DNA sequence: AGCACGCCGACT
DNA sequence: GTCGGCGTGCTC
C-alpha cells in the first residue's frame, strides 16, 4: 500500500504530494487525515496522509517507508481534507499551511538536531556532554557565535555527526499489552495451578489475541505475576500497543433556560429552523439592532440542532470573546460546550480541540480558527458580528472564516447565520440580491428606545476656546452621571499616551529609521517606539533637526485621557481598558467584573470596550474622537467608523434606564457620523454603496492585491511594474489593474513595499494567472531577497 | 525550507 | 594542491 503525503515543508517546490510505502504494521491503522513522520531528503518531517492507493507516481524501489504514525483517529476529517484543498486553491497558499491552520498549535511538529562527537578533539571539550549535544536549537540560543562556527566546521570535517530530530505531540498513548503467540503445553503445569488456569483460559482464545495485562489478569482470575511466567515460557509475548488517551473528565455548570421570544425574534428564527429541519443549506443575514436579542436566536437555533444530535459552531470576534459571552453559552449548554480562544495556553486549546474531535462536546464557541472545529455532523454555523475584520486571517493561509463557514455548511447541508447590527456591505448586498436570506430585527427586546446620539462639533469647541479633549456638554453630562451614580463608557480608539512628537518650530516629526512611520511615545519607559519593527529610542530634548527645544507631544491616547480625567473629575473612579492593561491573562475579565460591580464610574478604553458589554447601569457613552479612523487610507474606513460608533452607542441604556450618546468629531457632517445619529443603517448602506460604486470597490468589484517588497527601492518598483503589465496582458479588459503604487506604509524594516491592485467582476482565470505569476518569480525570490505575496480578498490595505 | 553537490578563488 | 565561498537543484 502507498500513501500520498503532504510534507511539512512550506515551499513552492514541495507543495505537492509525495508517495511513501505503508509498512505492514501500519497497514491496518493508517487512514487519510492522520499525521505521520516520514523521511524527507536527509531528515524526518511531519506529514499528512492525503490518500491511500496502489499506483506509485515514481518507481516503487525509490519509495521510502513511513517511519511513524501519530494518530489513530485522523485529526483532519475527510471533509476537512477536501476543504483544505479548496482553501489552498482559493487563497493561493501552500497545502501544508492550510492543514496546519486547521489543527491546534500543540499538534505541530518541532524540529531539532542532535549532535554526536565522533572523534575526540581538544577544541571541543566542554561543549559536549558525554559526547552529545542534545538540542541544537537550545545550544544556538545560548552559545557564543565562535562556538557555533567551530562546530559547523567540525560538522563539515566529519568529527561531529548530525542527527535531525522531529518531535510531535502524539495523540496516542503507548500501553503495555501481551499477545497470545503459542499454544501452551498443559502437561508442564502439574505443579503450577495458576499457570494451568491461565493456560486453559488462553486455549479458549485464538492465537494472536492481545490483552492488556490488567484485563487478562481479571478474565483468567490470576495475578500479573502468573502472566509474566507464561511470557517467560514463550506462550505470551509482551509488546506495546498504541491506544487513545483517556477520556476527558467532565465538569458541571449552572444552567439557564430559553427565554420567551418576541414576535420579531420568532419571525427571524422560523426560516432558520425550517432550513435546518429540511436539511437545506442556506445563509441567513440576521440584521438586528444592538439589544435586539440576536444571541437568544443563536441559542435557540443551536438547541434545535442539538436535539437532532447534530453539532454547532459559533464564531465570535476574538476581542468580544469575553467571559460574559462564554458564560451565556456555557450556562445554556453546560459541558457540551468547548471554548477556543487565544487566552488559552497551547495545551488548553489542545484539550478543548480533543473534546471536539472525540465527540465529547457538540458546541464550539471560538474565534476565527474555530471554524475548522473537527465536527463530523454539523447542524449549524453561526458567525456573530459578521462584519468584524478579525474573521480574515492576514497571514498565510489568508482565508476568511465567513467563506469557510459557508463552504462547510454547504457540505453538511445546514444553515449559516451571519449576525450583526452593522452588517458588512458585502453581506448586506448579497442579502439584497437574494444570495443570503435577510432577517431583520429592528426593535430592542426590552422595548427601550435607541439612545439619543448628540454629535458635537469639536471645531466649534475650539473656536469657543475649549482646547481640552472634552467638550463642555460631555463634561457636564459626565458630572451629571457621577452625581446620579450611573456608569459611563468612554471610547478613544488609540492607546498609549500621545501618538507622535513634533517640533513646533520646524515641523520635524520623529520617525522610525527603518520604517516610514512616525514613532509613538510610550510614557511608562519614556521612549519612542516603532509599532512595526519594534525600534526604540529615547525622547530627544531638543529638535534633532533645528536644535530648538519646542518639541511637543501631539495626538491623544487612552493614557493621556486617564490623566485628564483625574484633573477634570477628581472624584471619578476610572478603569482603563486597552491592550496595555489587558495583556495579562484574565485581566480583561477582572476589569470588566470590577466595573460591573460598580467599583468604577467610568470605563475608558479602545475598541475592545465597544463590543458585547451589557451592563444595566451604563447611561452615557462618549466617543472622544470619532474621526480617528475615518481618514485612514483604506476604502473601508467609513464602514468601519460607522460600525464602531454604532457598536459603542449600543452600550448605552440597554435596560430600564435611558441612555445617551455623545460623539465628538471634527467632521460632524460626514454620513458615517450622521447616520449613527439617526441609527439608520440602511441610509448609511445606500450612501456608502454609491461611494463604492463610484470608486469601483467591493461589493461592486472583487479585489486582489499583489504585494512586493525588496530592500532595494528600484528593484521593488521594477518588479511591481513588470507584474502590473503582466496582469494587464493576462486578464480580461474588464479587469482594472492599479499600480505599481507604494503601499500605504512604503517601508517597513528597511524593505520597500509596493503593490499592484486588481479590481474585477468576473475573472475565471484569475487564480491560474496569479499562480503562474508566483511561479515565474520563484527563481528571483530564491536568489535575491525579493518577497512577493498575493491576497485574493484583502481586508487590511495597510 | 534545508541540505548536498559542485565549481571557483585564496591560503598552508 | 585543499579549504571554504555560495549558486543550483532535489526531496517520494
Automatic annotation (TrEMBL):
Q: In what residue span(s) does the Helicase C-terminal domain sit?
A: 538-695
InterPro entries associated with the record: DEAD/DEAH_box_helicase_dom (IPR011545), Helicase_ATP-bd (IPR014001), Helicase_C-like (IPR001650), P-loop_NTPase (IPR027417), PriA (IPR005259), PriA_3primeBD (IPR041222), PriA_3primeBD_sf (IPR042115), PriA_C (IPR041236)
Question: Can you tell me which residues the record assigns to a coiled coil?
Answer: none
PROSITE patterns reported in the protein's UniProt record: HELICASE_ATP_BIND_1, HELICASE_CTER
- Its recorded name reads Replication restart protein PriA
**Keywords linked to the UniProt accession:** ATP-binding, DNA replication, DNA-binding, Helicase, Hydrolase, Isomerase, Metal-binding, Nucleotide-binding, Primosome, Zinc
Q: Which residues bind Zn(2+) 2?
A: 512, 515, 530, 533
Q: How is the cofactor bound?
A: Binds 2 zinc ions per subunit.
Report the catalytic activity: ATP + H2O = ADP + phosphate + H(+); Couples ATP hydrolysis with the unwinding of duplex DNA by translocating in the 3'-5' direction
Amino acid at each position: 500500500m502507498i500513501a500520498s503525503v503532504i510534507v511539512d515543508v512550506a515551499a513552492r517546490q514541495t507543495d505537492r504530494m509525495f508517495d511513501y510505502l505503508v509498512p505492514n504494521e501500519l497497514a491496518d491503522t493508517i487512514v487519510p487525515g492522520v499525521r505521520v513522520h516520514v523521511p524527507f531528503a536527509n531528515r524526518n518531517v511531519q506529514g499528512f496522509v492525503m490518500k491511500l492507493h496502489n499506483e506509485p507516481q515514481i518507481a516503487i524501489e525509490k519509495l521510502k517507508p513511513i517511519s511513524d504514525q501519530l494518530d489513530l483517529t485522523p485529526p483532519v476529517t475527510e471533509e476537512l481534507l477536501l476543504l483544505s484543498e479548496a482553501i489552498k486553491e482559493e487563497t493561493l497558499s501552500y497545502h501544508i499551511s492550510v492543514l496546519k491552520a486547521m489543527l491546534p498549535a500543540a499538534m505541530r511538529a518541532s524540529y531539532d538536531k542532535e549532535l554526536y562527537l565522533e572523534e575526540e578533539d581538544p577544541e571541543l571539550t566542554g561543549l559536549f556532554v558525554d559526547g552529545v549535544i542534545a538540542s541544537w536549537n537550545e545550544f544556538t540560543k545560548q552559545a557564543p557565535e565562535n562556538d557555533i562556527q567551530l562546530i559547523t566546521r567540525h560538522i563539515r570535517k566529519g568529527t561531529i555527526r548530525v542527527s535531525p530530530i522531529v518531535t510531535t505531540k502524539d495523540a496516542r498513548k503507548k500501553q503495555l499489552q501481551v499477545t497470545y503467540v503459542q499454544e501452551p503445553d498443559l502437561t508442564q503445569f502439574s505443579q503450577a495451578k495458576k499457570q494451568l488456569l491461565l493456560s486453559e483460559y488462553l486455549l479458549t482464545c485464538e492465537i494472536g489475541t492481545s490483552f492488556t495485562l490488567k484485563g487478562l489478569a481479571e478474565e483468567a482470575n490470576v495475578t500479573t505475576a502468573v502472566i509474566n511466567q507464561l511470557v517467560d515460557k514463550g506462550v505470551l509475548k509482551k509488546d506495546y500497543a498504541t491506544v487513545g488517551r483517556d477520556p476527558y473528565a467532565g465538569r458541571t455548570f449552572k444552567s439557564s433556560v430559553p427565554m420567551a421570544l418576541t414576535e420579531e425574534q420568532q419571525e427571524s428564527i422560523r426560516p432558520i429552523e425550517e432550513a435546518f429541519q429540511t436539511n437545506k443549506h442556506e445563509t441567513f443575514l440576521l440584521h438586528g439592532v444592538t439589544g435586539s436579542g440576536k444571541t437568544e436566536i443563536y441559542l435557540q437555533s443551536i438547541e434545535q440542532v442539538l436535539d437532532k444530535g447534530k453539532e454547532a459552531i459559533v464564531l465570535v470576534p476574538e476581542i468580544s470573546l469575553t467571559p460574559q459571552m462564554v458564560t451565556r453559552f456555557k450556562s445554556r449548554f453546560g459541558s457540551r460546550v468547548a471554548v477556543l480562544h487565544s487566552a488559552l495556553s497551547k495545551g488548553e486549546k489542545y484539550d478543548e480541540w480533543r473534546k471536539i474531535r472525540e465527540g465529547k462536546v457538540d458546541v464550539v464557541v471560538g474565534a476565527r480558527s474555530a471554524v475548522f472545529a473537527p465536527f463530523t455532523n454539523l447542524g449549524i454555523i453561526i458567525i456573530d458580528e459578521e462584519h468584524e475584520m478579525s474573521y480574515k486571517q492576514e497571514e498565510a493561509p489568508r482565508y476568511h472564516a465567513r467563506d469557510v463557514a459557508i463552504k462547510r455548511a454547504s457540505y453538511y447541508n445546514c444553515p449559516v447565520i451571519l449576525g450583526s447590527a452593522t452588517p458588512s456591505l458585502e453581506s448586506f448586498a448579497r442579502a439584497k440580491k437574494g444570495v443570503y436570506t435577510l432577517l431583520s430585527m429592528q426593535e430592542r427586546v426590552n422595548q427601550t428606545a435607541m439612545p439619543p446620539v448628540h454629535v458635537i462639533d469639536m471645531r466649534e469647541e475650539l473656536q469657543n476656546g475649549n482646547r481640552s479633549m472634552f467638550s463642555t456638554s460631555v463634561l457636564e453630562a459626565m458630572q451629571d452621571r457621577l452625581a446620579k451614580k450611573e456608569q459611563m463608557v468612554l471610547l478613544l480608539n488609540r492607546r498609549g499616551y500621545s501618538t507622535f512628537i513634533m517640533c513646533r518650530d520646524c515641523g520635524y516629526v520623529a520617525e522610525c529609521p527603518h520604517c516610514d512611520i512616525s514613532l509613538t511615545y510610550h510614557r511608562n519607559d519614556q521612549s519612542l517606539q516603532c509599532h512595526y519593527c519594534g525600534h526604540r529610542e529615547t525622547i530627544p530634548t531638543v529638535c534633532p533637526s533645528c536644535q530648538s527645544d519646542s518639541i511637543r507631544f501631539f495626538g491623544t491616547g487612552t493614557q493621556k485621557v486617564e490623566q485628564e480625567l483625574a484633573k477634570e473629575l477628581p472624584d471619578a473612579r476610572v478603569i482603563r481598558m486597552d491592550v496595555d492593561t489587558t495583556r495579562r491573562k484574565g485581566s480583561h475579565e477582572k476589569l470588566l467584573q470590577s466595573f460591573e460591580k460598580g467599583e468604577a464610574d467610568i470605563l475608558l478604553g479602545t475598541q475592545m470596550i465597544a463590543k458585547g458589554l451589557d451592563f444595566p447601569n451604563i447611561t452615557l457613552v462618549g466617543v472622544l474622537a470619532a474621526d480617528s479612523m475615518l481618514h485612514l487610507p483604506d476604502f473601508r474606513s467609513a464602514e468601519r467608523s460607522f460600525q464602531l460608533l454604532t457598536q459603542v452607542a449600543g452600550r448605552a441604556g440597554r435596560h430600564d434606564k435611558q441612555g445617551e450618546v455623545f460623539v465628538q468629531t471634527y467632521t460632524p457632517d460626514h454620513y458615517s457620523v450622521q447616520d449613527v445619529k439617526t441609527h439608520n443603517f440602511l441610509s448609511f448602506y445606500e450612501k456608502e454603496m454609491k461611494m463604492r460604486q463610484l470608486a469601483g470597490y467591493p461589493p461592486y468589484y472583487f479585489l486582489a492585491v499583489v504585494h512586493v517588497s525588496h530592500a532595494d527601492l528600484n528593484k521593488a518598483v521594477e518588479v511591481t511594474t513588470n507584474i502590473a503589465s503582466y496582469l494587464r496582458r493576462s486578464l480580461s479588459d474588464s479587469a482594472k489593474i492599479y499600480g505599481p503604487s507604494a503601499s500605504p506604509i512604503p517601508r517597513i524594516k528597511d524593505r520597500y513595499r509596493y503593490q499592484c491592485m486588481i479590481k474585477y467582476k468576473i475573472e475565471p482565470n484569475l487564480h491560474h494567472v496569479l499562480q503562474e505569476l508566483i511561479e515565474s518569480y520563484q527563481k528571483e525570490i530564491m536568489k535575491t531577497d525579493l518577497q512577493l505575496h498575493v491576497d485574493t480578498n484583502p481586508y487590511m490595505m495597510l
